[in-house]
């Protein structure tokens, strides 16, 4: 008898909470439906949300979906009321005040849930309202993302890049046709060095078969004489017919799909410890970028790092077969060989660069640095020598060999300085060599130019 009583009590409690919950939802809908809510309405709206939330445990799917939608709308309602006040008509900072990144994500999720739920039921209660709201909200969110990007640049705070990425992703979530926003969100995530987030976005772009291919439409503004872009050829045609614009121009936008695969591979090469995952990403990137010799360099560098020297050599050979006279390719091969302590190979590649392009300043500098790389060995041994006759003779030999090294380096450094006089690395290294060779006139002359 007692157990039945407990069961009956729990049923009654659920029933009471359900009735109460329905009342709260009615109140929320009533306030939400107002065209011009007041401060008092906002207070009641937020209080009702707080009151109703604990009652949702046993709520139906519909009640949970709509409650979360009302809750996510609270900041919007608060902003609407604030912006309606005369003193705030032009206060754009209010958007940042009422919209946190988390709040935007919650609103996006809640709105999509309502749209999906109503589509499933075939009963569009808020669908039209949400779709109209999205149209109004997208430009505001885009401006926020642009502002955060600008702030990241000026403040050097990369967390702003991540916030910009999250906002752009919210635009895409609100309107899945905005695939380009997801692409730029991935780029911002890379700038923020949040590589897991970037991978998530890039993989979603692959899943939805995003290419970014298309056409950009331009025309000259007759009044300003400046070229402006348009969303479509049809939109541009309307402006041309009015006489406000002229000289239409189309610009084809190449597919970004290959670039996306390449970025995924680059991230995994840097971040992943799973060699199979990295190798698959590299192969996918190569299939998507068959003519990109620069990626062969990245791939070769990876195989060198994992000590697969057979594949490393194969890739180097393959790269040169494809573009034997590509100066950047040869230079990068020199850099990789230098990193692998294969100095003779590195010197060969740097000299080949100069043979192809005699004005490639970095090749001269790299050759100079290669020559100077043995200086530490000289210094270490010279410092260990004592004052005996034998040590003095050895010191003299080392001094001559060191001077020979500097003299062999000097032509490369002087040529690098001639080609890139503003390069501080070149001028500083050249100055050091002049001092080591006791060429004081040259030291004085170079200092006057620095």
Helix content: over 70%
What class, by secondary structure content? mainly alpha
Q: Give the amount of beta strand, in percent.
A: under 5%
Q: Number of helical segments?
A: 21
Arrangement of strands in the largest sheet: 2-1-3
Order of helices and strands: HHHHHHHHHEEHEHHHHHHHHHHH
Shape: elongated
Uncertain spans? 1-20
Count all strands and give the number.
3
Distance separating the two termini = 99 Å
Sheet with most strands: 3 strands, antiparallel
Radius of gyration: 33 Å
> What number is the mean pLDDT?
86
Question: Could you characterize the architecture of this molecule?
Answer:
- This protein is mainly alpha-helical and 450 residues long.
- Helices cover 74% and strands 5% of the residues.
- It contains 21 helices and three strands.
- It has helices spanning 2-32, 39-52, 61-83, 93-98, 101-121, 127-155, 159-174, 179-191, 195-207, 233-242, 257-271, 275-288, 293-305, 309-322, 327-339, 343-356, 361-372, 375-384, 389-419, 424-436, 440-449; strands at 214-221, 227-230, 245-253.
- β1 (214-221) and β2 form a beta hairpin.
- α6 packs antiparallel against α7, α11 (257-271) runs antiparallel to α12 and α16 packs antiparallel against α17.
- The N and C termini lie far apart (99 Å).
